[in-house]
Write a structure and sequence with these properties.
It is a single chain. It contains 15 helices and 46 strands. Helix 9 (275-287) packs parallel to helix 10 (333-345). The chain folds into five domains: 11-346, Alpha-Beta Barrel (TIM Barrel), CATH 3.20.20; 355-415; 429-448 and 597-725, Jelly Rolls (Sandwich); 459-592, Galactose-binding domain-like (Jelly Rolls), CATH 2.60.120; 734-845, Jelly Rolls, CATH 2.60.120.740. It has an eight-stranded parallel beta barrel with strand order 4-5-8-9-10-11-12-14, surrounded by four helices. The two termini are 56 Å apart. The chain binds 2-acetamido-2-deoxy-beta-D-glucopyranose (NAG) (7 copies). The site of one 2-acetamido-2-deoxy-beta-D-glucopyranose has 6 residues, from strand 26 and strand 31. Its EC number is 3.2.1.23.
Length: 846
Amino acid sequence: MAAAPVRFLPLLLPLLLPLLLLLVAAAADSGVTYDGRSLIISGRRRLLISTSIHYPRSVPAMWPKLVAEAKDGGADCIETYVFWNGHETAPGEYYFEDRFDLVRFAKVVKDAGLYLMLRIGPFVAAEWNFGGVPVWLHYIPGAVFRTNNEPFKSHMKSFTTKIVDMMKRERFFASQGGHIILAQIENEYGDTEQAYGADGKAYAMWAASMALAQNTGVPWIMCQQYDAPEHVINTCNSFYCDQFKTNSPTKPKIWTENWPGWFQTFGESNPHRPPEDVAFSVARFFQKGGSVQNYYVYHGGTNFGRTTGGPFITTSYDYDAPIDEYGLTRLPKWAHLRDLHKSIKLCEHSLLYGNLTSLSLGTKQEADVYTDHSGGCVAFLANIDPENDTVVTFRSRQYDLPAWSVSILPDCKNAVFNTAKVQSQTLMVDMVPETLQSTKPDRWSIFREKTGIWDKNDFIRNGFVDHINTTKDSTDYLWHTTSFNVDRSYPTNGNRELLSIDSKGHAVHAFLNNELIGSAYGNGSKSSFNVHMPIKLKPGKNEIALLSMTVGLQNAGPHYEWVGAGLTSVNISGMKNGSIDLSSNNWAYKIGLEGEHYGLFKPDQGNNQRWSPQSEPPKGQPLTWYKVNVDVPQGDDPVGIDMQSMGKGLAWLNGNAIGRYWPRTSSSDDRCTPSCNYRGPFNPSKCRTGCGKPTQRWYHVPRSWFHPSGNTLVVFEEQGGDPTKITFSRRVATKVCSFVSENYPSIDLESWDKSISDDGKDTAKVQLSCPKGKNISSVKFASFGDPSGTCRSYQQGRCHHPSSLSVVEKACLNINSCTVSLSDEGFGKDLCPGVAKTLAIEADCS
Ligand SMILES: *[C@@H]1O[C@H](CO)[C@@H](O)[C@H](O)[C@H]1NC(C)=O
Ligand SMILES: *[C@@H]1O[C@H](CO)[C@@H](O)[C@H](O)[C@H]1NC(C)=O
Ligand SMILES: *[C@@H]1O[C@H](CO)[C@@H](O)[C@H](O)[C@H]1NC(C)=O
Ligand SMILES: *[C@@H]1O[C@H](CO)[C@@H](O)[C@H](O)[C@H]1NC(C)=O
Ligand SMILES: *[C@@H]1O[C@H](CO)[C@@H](O)[C@H](O)[C@H]1NC(C)=O
Ligand SMILES: *[C@@H]1O[C@H](CO)[C@@H](O)[C@H](O)[C@H]1NC(C)=O
Ligand SMILES: *[C@@H]1O[C@H](CO)[C@@H](O)[C@H](O)[C@H]1NC(C)=O
């Protein structure tokens, strides 16, 4: 696959017209190639910025805008996994509609003029239910996932072939003149290979040759596959990949997953990765010879329906990504990275064709300098000190390098970008509530589930069964019921009796004699739990109904498909005369809910007789389905539904599955920080917010799911909540902030030309811009001097120009966007000579 680059091709084109067609045909045949430095596309080495956007995590109506935002952000390429269990719903039965319309998504990318990296997997992990593998495959006799196992390999091969053939039919592979430049087989298998012994290695090598035999004409990659064979490129997934080396000097250094944030877990606080650190990691990667870098994820989106992996991964897959869950660019992260990409692109030729010299500029400071034949010179200056800022001397000039930062010098002279100097404004977004608004008086209907077995039981068993083996994930819910007798003479002694439950996971609601007596669930990534609930027995027959639930199936780890879930032991203890072990009782089972059985969430079930109209819906009532007519929230801002008043359950709009909701609160002792120090190695527990608050309060409802009128919201509530307090909220940018210092680069990356630029030291500027249709309506804070703090909590320092506010108001008030230069002239005479000045502004948009 690694053919020699055809570098002279562009020069020949105008000269040798008759040969043109032949040459083009030859280039097309060879497709994308690579050498030890980079991919080679159309005969040219390329530096590529790639961005993950997973098609089923948004809706088709959002795709063009998301892809355009990625392109504006500097992306050359969109990356996506292919989601096997979304496509092969039963063996040989395929679904490629709506959110799963892979060809349509690929066309959106193509129409935007971007490349596509297709990570077929088809095991993907990805915080996706069962790691993307269809649950039915686990029940094919003899199937064992991700090892040298015939049933698994044969299904994996037919699905991979199916996808490759679809792409070939559309002529999407670069070798066919299309835009797919890379494909991936398997996923992070090298990290688990050992757990499968010799069969692991055999399977990995089989996967590689199966992929190569697909004849796509573009290179295959395997991420985290340390032993990838000769013609497959092993790539890196991590927060940092600058130190990564491929397993052969003939393979380029590719970073398939740079995590710009992290996923959320119900019941935990929310992780954030600072933009300074993301930029630092990317700059370091290109400084150290990297050539393709992909953000996993650039837009995370939403785990609609029951697609989320688990246990307990939230319905939101926001990921603190450069584009937020709702499709809005996240600032400053998105813009800071855009500026980084522009700066790196200014260096592309020298990086790819130049020779490298590495210099030490101090104990923790280093320069990597690339010089090429045409006289080009680029330098990356890094300060990898996790604490201290410094000034380094490079080619007899001085450069200010904050701790944990890289400066990019596309001409070995001017630092056009520093990863720690964030020039972009911060955009603050709020969820602005609206009422559900419908004016119809009879707008609510309810259906109450029976507690325990509805209709007839599915089977009776002495003792417990595995939950997943029983539901086969056709539903989250599995009822277990049993009963026992309490002697009339038994002293009901001050309620010291306890119902004790052991479960492998993930959650349970316990009912005694039709009353909800408690709920329990695993915590963090631990699905199992043990719980003791105080109960009040009655004389005679007592009935216990336990609703066991899954909350997203395991998505990774060796042998993950065998983890299982469900109850393992149930006792009544604390009784005067000992305890009752109910574990080996006769238990009656029922898979799923009655409302699910009738499809009450479907639009055509709106008039189902089981719905009973209510003027006021009941509150605090478990096991209740609610149906309500709702109006479309005004305007075109993205919409989230606020479920804070509810317990746990599922929600649908017009039959579209919004997903699991669960405003489970994170423990308040969790480590949250008011502000985040970007310096030093990042890990997901480092910069967290939302301690003591619901992990996820709002759930994305795509605009395209609303009709102009006649919208139906259906909610199934398990525990009890107040549905009258459910509201739609519009996601709206309400505020902009900026914090820029004099020593920030002041070069306009759009117009900068290194061949004509002198030392042009312009003054640094602040640029503020409200979203389209809004103006800067008030300036809440402005200080030119040495202010500190973060947006919404800036503070004046010792040096403050008294005219700060009036200068900013004059430049910015009542217009959509403005620029303020950090010159002393604008602000009056220099009140504090020798102090490097900063301008901090907080302003409202309306
Ligand atoms: C890079 O180094 C090699 C070996 O020293 C030399 O042959 C080549 O001309 C150099 N290339 C450039 C662009 O300086
Ligand atoms: C940062 O500087 C301080 C003061 O000079 C020093 O004590 C500390 O060790 C430095 N930190 C690192 C990581 O070098
Ligand atoms: C204790 O009393 C309860 C309630 O009458 C009865 O169901 C149970 O079997 C008794 N347990 C023992 C160990 O005798
Ligand atoms: C129930 O009792 C049995 C026997 O004492 C014990 O092994 C088991 O752990 C108990 N289960 C629970 C859920 O407490
Ligand atoms: C969940 O785990 C966290 C961290 O280990 C702990 O602080 C918290 O109290 C636990 N919460 C529950 C409900 O067990
Ligand atoms: C599920 O059923 C399979 C047989 O189909 C069995 O091998 C496996 O052990 C069961 N899993 C659990 C967790 O009980
Ligand atoms: C914003 O300002 C412009 C120009 O000053 C004005 O034409 C426009 O009506 C204003 N828009 C809003 C939403 O206030």
